[in-house]
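User: Structure please.
Assistant: Input sequence and predicted structure:
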Amino acid sequence: MTYLAKTLIFFTLPFLWILFFGSFFIKIINKYEFGQNIRELGPSSHYKKKGVPTMGGILIISGIFIPLVFNNMWNMNNIIFVIVIILTAIIGLSDDLIKIKKERSLGLTARHKIFLQLIIALILALYVYYYLPSAHHILIPILKQRINMGIYTIPIVILTYLATVNAVNLTDGLDGLASSITSVVAITLYIMITYFTKSSHAFLTASVAGASLGFLWYNSKPATLFMGDVGSLSLGAALTVLFSFTGLEFVLIITGGIFVIEAFSVIIQVIYFKITKGKRVFLMSPLHHHFELKGLSETKIVYRFTLAAILLSILSIIISI
Protein backbone atom coordinates (compact mmCIF):
# COMPACT_ATOMS: atom_id res chain seq x y z
CA MET A 1 0.00 0.00 0.00
CA THR A 2 1.38 3.41 -0.93
CA TYR A 3 2.04 6.18 1.58
CA LEU A 4 -0.78 8.33 0.17
CA ALA A 5 -3.27 5.46 0.12
CA LYS A 6 -2.56 4.67 3.76
CA THR A 7 -2.94 8.34 4.63
CA LEU A 8 -6.35 8.42 2.98
CA ILE A 9 -7.45 5.35 4.90
CA PHE A 10 -6.35 6.81 8.24
CA PHE A 11 -8.10 10.08 7.45
CA THR A 12 -11.28 8.70 5.89
CA LEU A 13 -12.14 5.89 8.34
CA PRO A 14 -12.47 8.16 11.42
CA PHE A 15 -14.31 10.77 9.39
CA LEU A 16 -16.88 8.30 8.05
CA TRP A 17 -17.16 6.44 11.38
CA ILE A 18 -18.19 9.63 13.18
CA LEU A 19 -20.38 10.79 10.30
CA PHE A 20 -22.42 7.58 10.17
CA PHE A 21 -22.55 6.67 13.87
CA GLY A 22 -22.86 10.18 15.31
CA SER A 23 -26.67 10.19 15.22
CA PHE A 24 -26.84 6.80 16.95
CA PHE A 25 -24.39 8.03 19.60
CA ILE A 26 -26.49 11.15 20.23
CA LYS A 27 -29.59 8.95 20.75
CA ILE A 28 -27.72 6.93 23.39
CA ILE A 29 -26.52 10.06 25.18
CA ASN A 30 -30.05 11.49 25.12
CA LYS A 31 -31.46 8.22 26.44
CA TYR A 32 -29.27 8.41 29.54
CA GLU A 33 -29.72 12.19 29.82
CA PHE A 34 -26.04 13.05 29.57
CA GLY A 35 -26.57 16.71 28.74
CA GLN A 36 -24.27 19.72 28.95
CA ASN A 37 -24.25 21.90 32.06
CA ILE A 38 -23.56 25.59 31.48
CA ARG A 39 -21.38 27.78 33.68
CA GLU A 40 -23.57 30.38 35.41
CA LEU A 41 -20.91 33.07 34.98
CA GLY A 42 -20.58 32.37 31.25
CA PRO A 43 -22.15 34.36 28.41
CA SER A 44 -25.95 34.40 28.66
CA SER A 45 -26.17 33.27 25.02
CA HIS A 46 -24.86 29.87 26.13
CA TYR A 47 -27.79 29.12 28.44
CA LYS A 48 -29.77 27.69 25.52
CA LYS A 49 -27.05 25.04 25.12
CA LYS A 50 -27.94 23.43 28.42
CA GLY A 51 -28.95 19.82 27.92
CA VAL A 52 -27.24 19.41 24.54
CA PRO A 53 -25.71 15.89 24.47
CA THR A 54 -22.09 15.85 25.61
CA MET A 55 -19.20 13.36 25.95
CA GLY A 56 -18.86 13.22 22.17
CA GLY A 57 -15.16 12.75 22.81
CA ILE A 58 -15.88 9.05 23.19
CA LEU A 59 -16.95 9.05 19.53
CA ILE A 60 -13.83 11.02 18.54
CA ILE A 61 -11.49 8.63 20.37
CA SER A 62 -13.11 5.55 18.85
CA GLY A 63 -12.72 7.16 15.43
CA ILE A 64 -9.02 7.81 15.98
CA PHE A 65 -8.44 4.19 16.98
CA ILE A 66 -10.46 2.59 14.14
CA PRO A 67 -7.62 2.79 11.53
CA LEU A 68 -5.15 1.20 13.97
CA VAL A 69 -7.46 -1.75 14.41
CA PHE A 70 -8.25 -1.93 10.70
CA ASN A 71 -4.55 -1.92 9.73
CA ASN A 72 -3.39 -3.99 12.74
CA MET A 73 -0.63 -1.46 13.50
CA TRP A 74 0.17 -2.42 17.08
CA ASN A 75 3.81 -1.50 17.53
CA MET A 76 4.98 -0.09 20.87
CA ASN A 77 4.73 3.55 19.79
CA ASN A 78 1.12 3.16 18.76
CA ILE A 79 0.29 1.27 21.95
CA ILE A 80 1.69 4.17 24.01
CA PHE A 81 -0.32 6.56 21.83
CA VAL A 82 -3.49 4.63 22.68
CA ILE A 83 -2.63 4.27 26.39
CA VAL A 84 -1.93 7.98 26.88
CA ILE A 85 -5.17 8.94 25.14
CA ILE A 86 -7.25 6.42 27.10
CA LEU A 87 -5.77 7.43 30.46
CA THR A 88 -6.37 11.09 29.65
CA ALA A 89 -9.88 10.27 28.47
CA ILE A 90 -10.63 8.65 31.83
CA ILE A 91 -9.81 11.95 33.56
CA GLY A 92 -12.07 13.82 31.16
CA LEU A 93 -14.86 11.25 31.43
CA SER A 94 -14.75 11.41 35.24
CA ASP A 95 -14.93 15.18 35.02
CA ASP A 96 -17.91 15.06 32.64
CA LEU A 97 -19.80 12.51 34.75
CA ILE A 98 -19.32 14.55 37.93
CA LYS A 99 -20.67 17.63 36.14
CA ILE A 100 -23.71 15.71 34.91
CA LYS A 101 -24.41 13.84 38.15
CA LYS A 102 -24.07 16.92 40.37
CA GLU A 103 -25.61 19.23 37.74
CA ARG A 104 -22.84 21.78 37.85
CA SER A 105 -20.38 23.22 35.32
CA LEU A 106 -17.29 22.25 37.34
CA GLY A 107 -16.20 18.63 37.75
CA LEU A 108 -12.92 17.41 39.21
CA THR A 109 -10.92 19.91 41.20
CA ALA A 110 -7.95 21.51 39.45
CA ARG A 111 -5.61 19.88 41.96
CA HIS A 112 -6.90 16.40 41.20
CA LYS A 113 -6.76 16.99 37.45
CA ILE A 114 -3.18 18.24 37.49
CA PHE A 115 -2.02 15.40 39.75
CA LEU A 116 -3.50 12.75 37.45
CA GLN A 117 -2.22 14.53 34.36
CA LEU A 118 1.28 14.66 35.86
CA ILE A 119 1.31 10.88 36.24
CA ILE A 120 0.33 10.37 32.59
CA ALA A 121 2.81 13.02 31.43
CA LEU A 122 5.60 11.30 33.36
CA ILE A 123 4.78 7.93 31.77
CA LEU A 124 4.93 9.50 28.30
CA ALA A 125 8.12 11.44 29.05
CA LEU A 126 9.96 8.39 30.39
CA TYR A 127 8.94 6.36 27.36
CA VAL A 128 10.18 9.05 24.97
CA TYR A 129 13.44 9.41 26.89
CA TYR A 130 14.28 5.72 27.22
CA TYR A 131 12.82 4.26 24.02
CA LEU A 132 12.84 7.06 21.43
CA PRO A 133 16.36 8.52 21.34
CA SER A 134 15.62 10.18 17.99
CA ALA A 135 12.93 12.27 19.76
CA HIS A 136 15.62 13.80 22.01
CA HIS A 137 16.70 15.84 18.99
CA ILE A 138 14.11 18.61 19.17
CA LEU A 139 13.65 20.97 16.24
CA ILE A 140 14.20 24.66 16.94
CA PRO A 141 12.04 26.78 14.63
CA ILE A 142 13.74 29.62 12.72
CA LEU A 143 17.15 27.98 13.28
CA LYS A 144 15.79 24.91 11.45
CA GLN A 145 18.17 22.78 13.47
CA ARG A 146 17.65 19.95 15.92
CA ILE A 147 19.31 20.06 19.33
CA ASN A 148 19.84 16.99 21.49
CA MET A 149 18.07 17.84 24.75
CA GLY A 150 19.17 14.67 26.50
CA ILE A 151 17.68 14.35 29.99
CA TYR A 152 15.85 17.67 29.48
CA THR A 153 13.57 15.83 27.08
CA ILE A 154 11.65 14.60 30.13
CA PRO A 155 10.57 18.02 31.51
CA ILE A 156 9.92 19.29 27.96
CA VAL A 157 7.49 16.42 27.26
CA ILE A 158 5.82 16.83 30.66
CA LEU A 159 5.31 20.56 30.15
CA THR A 160 4.08 19.98 26.59
CA TYR A 161 1.50 17.49 27.81
CA LEU A 162 0.21 19.63 30.67
CA ALA A 163 0.07 22.78 28.55
CA THR A 164 -1.54 21.17 25.51
CA VAL A 165 -4.28 19.09 27.14
CA ASN A 166 -5.41 22.01 29.28
CA ALA A 167 -5.11 24.57 26.47
CA VAL A 168 -7.28 22.48 24.13
CA ASN A 169 -9.73 22.04 26.99
CA LEU A 170 -9.94 25.83 27.50
CA THR A 171 -10.40 26.38 23.76
CA ASP A 172 -13.42 24.08 23.71
CA GLY A 173 -15.92 26.81 24.54
CA LEU A 174 -17.66 27.60 21.25
CA ASP A 175 -19.42 25.35 18.74
CA GLY A 176 -16.80 23.86 16.43
CA LEU A 177 -13.84 25.84 17.78
CA ALA A 178 -11.64 23.16 19.38
CA SER A 179 -12.27 20.60 16.63
CA SER A 180 -11.53 23.15 13.89
CA ILE A 181 -8.24 24.26 15.45
CA THR A 182 -7.21 20.67 16.22
CA SER A 183 -7.80 19.58 12.62
CA VAL A 184 -5.62 22.46 11.35
CA VAL A 185 -2.82 21.59 13.77
CA ALA A 186 -3.00 17.88 12.93
CA ILE A 187 -2.90 18.50 9.17
CA THR A 188 0.10 20.80 9.64
CA LEU A 189 1.91 18.16 11.66
CA TYR A 190 1.16 15.61 8.92
CA ILE A 191 2.82 17.92 6.37
CA MET A 192 5.90 18.31 8.58
CA ILE A 193 6.28 14.62 9.35
CA THR A 194 5.87 13.80 5.66
CA TYR A 195 8.54 16.36 4.77
CA PHE A 196 11.04 15.22 7.41
CA THR A 197 10.66 11.45 7.73
CA LYS A 198 7.48 9.98 6.19
CA SER A 199 7.18 7.92 9.38
CA SER A 200 4.06 6.05 10.47
CA HIS A 201 3.34 8.86 12.95
CA ALA A 202 2.00 10.82 9.99
CA PHE A 203 -0.86 8.35 9.63
CA LEU A 204 -1.92 8.97 13.22
CA THR A 205 -2.02 12.72 12.58
CA ALA A 206 -4.28 12.00 9.59
CA SER A 207 -6.51 9.98 11.91
CA VAL A 208 -6.74 12.85 14.43
CA ALA A 209 -7.53 15.30 11.61
CA GLY A 210 -10.21 13.01 10.14
CA ALA A 211 -11.87 12.48 13.52
CA SER A 212 -11.82 16.22 14.32
CA LEU A 213 -13.34 17.17 10.96
CA GLY A 214 -15.92 14.40 11.19
CA PHE A 215 -16.98 15.65 14.60
CA LEU A 216 -17.57 19.11 13.12
CA TRP A 217 -20.61 17.65 11.32
CA TYR A 218 -22.36 17.55 14.70
CA ASN A 219 -20.41 20.19 16.60
CA SER A 220 -20.64 23.14 14.18
CA LYS A 221 -23.14 25.81 15.21
CA PRO A 222 -25.75 25.05 16.33
CA ALA A 223 -24.04 22.06 17.94
CA THR A 224 -26.08 18.90 18.43
CA LEU A 225 -23.21 17.22 20.27
CA PHE A 226 -20.40 18.51 22.49
CA MET A 227 -17.08 16.71 22.90
CA GLY A 228 -16.89 17.34 26.66
CA ASP A 229 -13.69 17.14 28.65
CA VAL A 230 -13.29 13.52 27.58
CA GLY A 231 -12.84 14.85 24.03
CA SER A 232 -10.86 18.05 24.51
CA LEU A 233 -8.36 16.52 26.95
CA SER A 234 -7.92 13.45 24.72
CA LEU A 235 -7.31 15.53 21.60
CA GLY A 236 -4.69 17.50 23.53
CA ALA A 237 -3.08 14.23 24.60
CA ALA A 238 -3.07 12.90 21.03
CA LEU A 239 -1.34 16.04 19.75
CA THR A 240 1.19 15.92 22.58
CA VAL A 241 2.17 12.33 21.84
CA LEU A 242 2.61 12.97 18.12
CA PHE A 243 4.60 16.19 18.53
CA SER A 244 6.75 14.58 21.25
CA PHE A 245 7.42 11.42 19.22
CA THR A 246 8.70 13.56 16.34
CA GLY A 247 10.71 16.11 18.36
CA LEU A 248 8.49 19.00 17.29
CA GLU A 249 7.38 20.26 20.71
CA PHE A 250 8.65 23.79 20.12
CA VAL A 251 6.92 23.91 16.74
CA LEU A 252 3.63 23.18 18.53
CA ILE A 253 3.92 26.54 20.30
CA ILE A 254 3.49 28.27 16.93
CA THR A 255 1.28 25.75 15.12
CA GLY A 256 -1.02 25.60 18.12
CA GLY A 257 -0.74 29.33 18.71
CA ILE A 258 -4.49 29.71 19.26
CA PHE A 259 -4.32 27.15 22.06
CA VAL A 260 -1.42 29.11 23.58
CA ILE A 261 -3.26 32.43 23.34
CA GLU A 262 -6.42 30.99 24.87
CA ALA A 263 -4.49 29.51 27.80
CA PHE A 264 -2.49 32.69 28.42
CA SER A 265 -5.65 34.80 28.37
CA VAL A 266 -6.87 32.78 31.36
CA ILE A 267 -3.53 33.01 33.16
CA ILE A 268 -3.31 36.78 32.59
CA GLN A 269 -6.90 37.26 33.72
CA VAL A 270 -6.43 35.30 36.95
CA ILE A 271 -3.12 36.97 37.87
CA TYR A 272 -4.37 40.49 37.09
CA PHE A 273 -7.61 39.84 38.98
CA LYS A 274 -5.68 38.82 42.09
CA ILE A 275 -3.12 41.63 41.90
CA THR A 276 -5.70 44.37 41.35
CA LYS A 277 -8.25 42.76 43.69
CA GLY A 278 -11.08 42.44 41.24
CA LYS A 279 -10.13 44.19 38.01
CA ARG A 280 -10.04 42.36 34.69
CA VAL A 281 -7.99 42.60 31.50
CA PHE A 282 -10.64 40.83 29.42
CA LEU A 283 -14.41 41.00 29.71
CA MET A 284 -14.21 37.25 30.22
CA SER A 285 -11.63 34.53 29.68
CA PRO A 286 -10.73 32.42 27.73
CA LEU A 287 -10.28 34.95 24.96
CA HIS A 288 -13.13 33.71 22.76
CA HIS A 289 -15.62 34.72 25.46
CA HIS A 290 -14.13 38.24 25.50
CA PHE A 291 -14.98 38.63 21.82
CA GLU A 292 -18.44 37.18 22.42
CA LEU A 293 -19.17 39.85 25.00
CA LYS A 294 -17.76 42.42 22.59
CA GLY A 295 -20.66 41.55 20.31
CA LEU A 296 -19.08 39.22 17.74
CA SER A 297 -21.19 36.24 16.75
CA GLU A 298 -20.05 32.77 17.78
CA THR A 299 -19.72 31.72 14.15
CA LYS A 300 -17.56 34.71 13.23
CA ILE A 301 -15.23 34.08 16.18
CA VAL A 302 -14.78 30.44 15.17
CA TYR A 303 -14.10 31.41 11.55
CA ARG A 304 -11.57 34.06 12.52
CA PHE A 305 -9.79 31.89 15.08
CA THR A 306 -9.59 29.07 12.53
CA LEU A 307 -8.21 31.46 9.92
CA ALA A 308 -5.61 32.63 12.45
CA ALA A 309 -4.73 28.99 13.15
CA ILE A 310 -4.21 28.36 9.44
CA LEU A 311 -1.94 31.41 9.15
CA LEU A 312 0.05 30.34 12.23
CA SER A 313 0.38 26.83 10.77
CA ILE A 314 1.70 28.23 7.49
CA LEU A 315 4.17 30.35 9.46
CA SER A 316 5.32 27.33 11.48
CA ILE A 317 5.96 25.38 8.27
CA ILE A 318 7.93 28.26 6.73
CA ILE A 319 10.21 28.70 9.76
CA SER A 320 10.67 24.97 10.37
CA ILE A 321 11.34 23.25 7.05
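The chain has a mean pLDDT of 93.
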